[in-house]
């Protein structure tokens, strides 16, 4: 079993004292990355709930920089002390309450050579207290308030001077210099070598605010999320929703930028090594920077979250596709791209930009990537993008084909087809298993077969331009074509015409047969591996999972289930479905297996309606399942049969957390104990039929009180009075026959005369 897809940016990371490692909170663990390579080298495992904070114990001397100690806090109510060079747990403290944050020095506390200050943001005010020394005899009673016209979002204190900076919701940055000299002084005496003059002119300071001056810098177009002083105090770093890191020179106000980061900034983390720092972004990436040039040295890429689509595309979105042979998943991202993520290595590989974008994340979404499909060998990719209509007018659908490079192993654009089905949306795209042919179906009432010109050239026809072209067009009674799939050998093309399934010969584009009719439109078609069975999924008011026999051209079996995703094995006749549980099952507190879980994974053999295995899961809405080609050695370190290649099953939930496991191995019954994050709870697989899907029925007491109100004596000849009562009271035939036959065999006493 292997889990992954956790968030890298749920909490700020932490550098080791030598700056060579970066500690990142990832779910229930802390992942340790090398800052020179960007690869994970170790992890701290032991918490049973998400880790919320990680703090590296600072070095007390240059010689102690080699020490690698840290503290972690978690929602499981424990604080743990680690030696992360091994790694090894050294101490555990149970708080017995969830810990949401832990820090030795909060962002609103500044410790510098001029004193210790506490600052708190309160809408349009910044309150600052001075913490006196232990031997001064003073209490924290005096405070100052610095006023602003907009709500403040973040603040930062200078490391060695009485300078405080704050950002607001409009993108402005205010820098107050010389704050608190009047309020925090004992009298009109020298304070830190400066004579307090109440009548001195204070540019930019509002009212009676206690500060020498206030400067306003404005570059950000949205609220400021990140604000941080450099360790020497010469620079101020700021970032916001635009995805740009701005460095301000404190004395002159001059600035320079690190543009096109591509996602809103969340955290800026300084390193004990002054040449390194990191920024955490909302797209689940951490960039390691070389300072002061702000060059991105390495990027630690986590799995990216899906974008939220407008209502017109709800339910019509296929946000990911799986490469069966390489273990990669292609994910649609918010920045109009496709991220290729390695499920075996749990890291991002690269990203393909599907369409042009403005590198300002604050802008409204005008184009969305609604569909991505990969060929079976992973050499071809197809994407569908839609330009959103403005006020109900306009809108453009674009179909693109991509080819995998032989050298760099990255996809490059091959063909762009604008409005392939006129102004209708595309419902499905599928590749032929053995040829460079693809099919696209549309809600406009037709489907089209596309062929790559490379295949045409192989047949002796030379073309000037390489790319994809339309080979054939098909339709059925002007009905919307809602799904399409090729058989495992490519000899049959199945296209759903709303509620019926049409079977075509893709070589001749001839309609062969029409089978079945469902109550609601079919949204998914898939052939069950190398078998003769076709799997269809219908959604709507009467959802249904149906299995059709191609030899009999009839329905084999079906379930009334709301199916979210379907995956078919390539070399077997098995398939897996992700079904959403009804609301009544989700809320059942009496059934522990369904608490907090809204879905169930069912693995079937296409010939048998009884599930082979079942697992209840969380966050199933918007999730998916897929079979991948892999080795059990990729799931376990110690495996005697590690060389056996087989098909593995992966489940990815709506937050794009995933689990990869062997659905046919013995670990399926053991993972309920070893699964750390509760992503999947594996159940016993010995339930069949109704109980395997909906659980056991309640046991009813079917016995009733047989005590008669009138005492009676059993008759020795029951057959004489048996028909005098009601027919439903007849005793079993075996009991009746035995009594009658025994009466015929009674011995009679002979009469002696």
Automatic annotation (TrEMBL):
InterPro entries, A to Z: Beta-prop_WDR75_2nd, WD40_rpt
Compartments, record wording: Nucleus, Nucleolus
UniProt keyword annotation of Repeat present: yes
Domain WD repeat-containing protein 75 second beta-propeller residues, every copy: 337-582
Keyword tags: Nucleus, Repeat, Ribosome biogenesis, rRNA processing, WD repeat
Domain of life: Eukaryota
Placement of WD repeats on the sequence: 217-258
Protein name: WD repeat-containing protein 75 second beta-propeller domain-containing protein
Organism: Carya illinoinensis
């Amino acid at each position: 079993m292997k889990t992954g897809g956790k968030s890298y940016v749920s909490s700020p990371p932490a550098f080791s004292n030598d700056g060579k490692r970066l500690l990142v909170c990832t779910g229930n663990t802390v992942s340790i990355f090398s800052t020179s390579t960007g690869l994970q080298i170790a992890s701290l495992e032991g918490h049973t709930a998400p880790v919320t904070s990680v703090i590296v114990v600072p070095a007390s001397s240059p010689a102690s920089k080699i020490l690698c100690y840290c503290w972690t806090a978690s929602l499981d109510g424990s604080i743990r002390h680690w030696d992360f060079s091994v790694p090894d747990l050294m101490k555990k403290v149970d708080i017995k309450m969830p810990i949401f944050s832990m820090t030795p020095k909060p962002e609103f506390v500044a410790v510098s050579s001029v004193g210790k200050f506490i600052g708190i943001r309160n809408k349009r005010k910044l309150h600052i207290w001075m913490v006196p020394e232990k031997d001064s005899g003073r209490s924290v009673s005096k405070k100052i308030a610095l006023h602003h016209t907009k709500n403040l979002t973040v603040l930062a204190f200078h490391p060695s001077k009485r300078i405080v900076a704050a950002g607001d919701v409009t993108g402005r940055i205010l820098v107050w210099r010389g704050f608190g000299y009047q309020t925090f002084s004992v009298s009109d005496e020298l304070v830190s070598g400066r004579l307090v003059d109440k009548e001195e002119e204070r540019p930019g300071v509002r009212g009676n605010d206690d500060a020498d001056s206030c400067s306003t810098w404005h570059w950000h177009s949205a609220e400021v999320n990140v604000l941080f002083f450099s360790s020497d105090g010469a620079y101020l770093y700021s970032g916001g929703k635009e995805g740009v890191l701005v460095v301000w020179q404190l004395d002159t106000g001059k600035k320079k930028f690190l543009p096109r980061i591509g996602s809103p900034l969340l955290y800026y983390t300084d390193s004990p090594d002054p040449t390194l720092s990191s920024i955490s972004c909302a797209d689940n990436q951490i960039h390691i920077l070389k300072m002061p040039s702000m060059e991105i040295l390495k990027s630690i890429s986590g799995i990216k979250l899906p974008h939220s689509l407008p209502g017109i595309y709800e339910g019509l979105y296929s946000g990911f596709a799986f490469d069966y042979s390489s273990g990669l998943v292609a994910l649609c991202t918010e920045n109009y791209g496709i991220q290729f993520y390695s499920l075996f290595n749990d890291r991002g590989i690269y990203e393909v930009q599907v369409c042009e974008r403005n590198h300002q994340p604050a802008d409204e979404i005008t184009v969305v990537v609604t569909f991505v499909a990969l060929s079976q060998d992973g050499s071809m990719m197809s994407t569908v993008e839609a330009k959103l209509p403005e006020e109900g007018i306009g809108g453009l659908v674009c179909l693109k084909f991509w080819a995998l490079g032989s050298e760099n192993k990255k996809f490059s654009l091959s063909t762009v087809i604008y409005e392939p089905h006129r102004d209708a949306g595309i419902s499905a795209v599928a590749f032929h298993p053995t040829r460079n042919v693809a099919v696209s179906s549309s809600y406009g009432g037709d489907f089209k077969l596309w062929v790559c010109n490379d295949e045409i050239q192989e047949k002796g026809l030379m073309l000037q331009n390489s790319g994809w072209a339309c080979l054939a067009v098909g339709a059925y009674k002007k009905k919307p074509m809602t799904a399409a799939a090729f058989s495992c050998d490519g000899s049959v093309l199945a296209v759903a015409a709303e509620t019926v399934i049409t079977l075509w010969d893709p070589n001749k584009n001839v309609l062969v047969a029409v089978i079945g009719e469902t109550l609601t439109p079919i949204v998914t078609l898939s052939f069950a591996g190398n078998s003769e069975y076709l799997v269809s999924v219908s959604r709507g008011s009467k959802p249904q999972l149906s299995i059709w026999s191609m030899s009999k051209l009839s329905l084999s079996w079906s379930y009334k289930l709301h199916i979210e995703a379907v995956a078919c094995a390539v070399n077997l006749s098995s398939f897996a479905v992700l079904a959403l549980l009804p609301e009544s099952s989700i809320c059942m507190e009496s059934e522990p297996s369904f608490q907090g879980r809204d879905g169930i994974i069912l693995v079937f053999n296409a010939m048998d309606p009884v599930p082979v295995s079942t697992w209840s899961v969380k966050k199933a809405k918007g999730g998916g399942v897929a079979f991948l080609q892999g080795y059990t050695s990729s799931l376990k370190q110690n495996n005697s049969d590690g060389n056996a290649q087989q098909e593995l099953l992966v489940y990815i939930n709506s937050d794009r957390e995933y689990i990869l496991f062997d659905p046919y191995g013995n670990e399926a019954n053991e993972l309920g104990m070893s699964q750390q994050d509760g992503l999947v709870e594996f159940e016993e697989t010995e339930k069949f039929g109704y109980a395997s899907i909906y659980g056991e029925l309640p046991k009813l007491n079917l016995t009733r009180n047989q005590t008669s109100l009138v005492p009676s004596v059993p008759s020795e000849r029951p057959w004489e009075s048996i028909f005098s009562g009601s027919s439903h009271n007849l005793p079993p035939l075996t009991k009746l026959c035995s009594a009658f036959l025994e009466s015929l065999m009674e011995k009679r006493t002979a009469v002696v005369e």
